[in-house]
């Protein structure tokens, strides 16, 4: 059979099959990468602290790559604009959100300051920082939450939703950061509140099973391209062998007739 395979026609067909197999393998690799794309960990740059204005500008949403970014921001908390949320993870029955006016831009930024199990203490913690002094807050930046995410119960809210804050804050000039900062322990301590349990963002590796199936499918196609060449060569060899046997049989019959 391999004598047939070495003929120029079949060598050319083998090269074509290998090219097709390479294309299919590339497509399979691409689909495999797509299947785990969502499982890649967030960039390590989130652990390199930046100023807020280097990371984000007002009225621009926080992208996925920025979620959890360590930032530092300087500004003044607005008196009377302290908001208390409940039903959130990270510690405490109540979490205090302050309205920070950023010194660099004058835009508003919600800051989750800390937590307390007493509502009055949570409010007092926010008021303690809203004394007109300029403060520097260090923490992690997160995308804004929607009012639709609120688990509203008895007049209490749970979402850090700038879209709702604009209707409750007393001092607001229409410029806002479309995200919020969870402050670290130094800010919580200054407010005499508990520190929100916040850590470096991670994502578990998760497969997109549909893309994984496509990757396997392309691998099968790559193997099939080479197998198809083998099948064609074998069929050609079998036909030639059958023709040879028929000729031999015909020749043997002719010799018998002569006898």
UniProtKB/TrEMBL annotation:
PROSITE patterns: SURF1 (PS50895). It is found in: Cell membrane. Keywords: Cell membrane, Membrane, Transmembrane, Transmembrane helix. Its main location: membrane. GO terms for cellular component: plasma membrane. The chain crosses the membrane at residues 209-230. It is a multi-pass membrane protein. It comes from the Bacteria. Belongs to the SURF1 family. This is SURF1-like protein. It comes from Curtobacterium luteum.
């Amino acid at each position: 059979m391999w004598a047939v395979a070495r003929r120029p026609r079949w060598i050319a067909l083998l090269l074509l099959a290998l090219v097709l197999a390479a294309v299919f393998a590339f497509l399979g690799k691409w689909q495999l990468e797509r299947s785990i794309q969502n499982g890649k960990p967030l960039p390590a740059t989130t652990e390199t602290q930046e100023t807020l204005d280097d990371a984000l500008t007002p009225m621009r949403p926080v992208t996925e790559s920025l979620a959890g970014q360590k930032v530092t921001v300087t500004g003044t908390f607005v008196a009377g604009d302290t908001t208390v949320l409940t039903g959130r993870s990270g510690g405490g029955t109540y979490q205090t959100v302050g309205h920070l006016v950023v010194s660099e831009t004058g835009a508003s930024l919600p800051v989750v300051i800390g937590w307390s199990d007493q509502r009055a203490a949570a409010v007092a913690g926010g008021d303690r920082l809203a004394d007109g002094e300029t403060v520097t807050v260090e923490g992690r930046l997160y995308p804004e939450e929607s009012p639709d995410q609120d688990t509203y119960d008895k007049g209490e809210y749970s979402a850090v939703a700038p879209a709702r804050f604009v209707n409750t804050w007393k001092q607001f000039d229409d410029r806002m950061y479309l995200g919020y900062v969870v402050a670290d322990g130094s800010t919580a301590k200054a407010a005499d509140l508990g520190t929100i349990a916040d850590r470096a963002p991670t994502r578990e590796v998760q497969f997109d099973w549909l893309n994984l199936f496509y990757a396997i499918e392309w691998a099968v196609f790559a193997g099939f391209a080479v197998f198809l060449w083998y099948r064609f060569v074998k069929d050609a060899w079998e036909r030639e062998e059958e023709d040879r046997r028929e000729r031999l049989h015909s020749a043997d019959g002719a010799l018998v007739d002569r006898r």
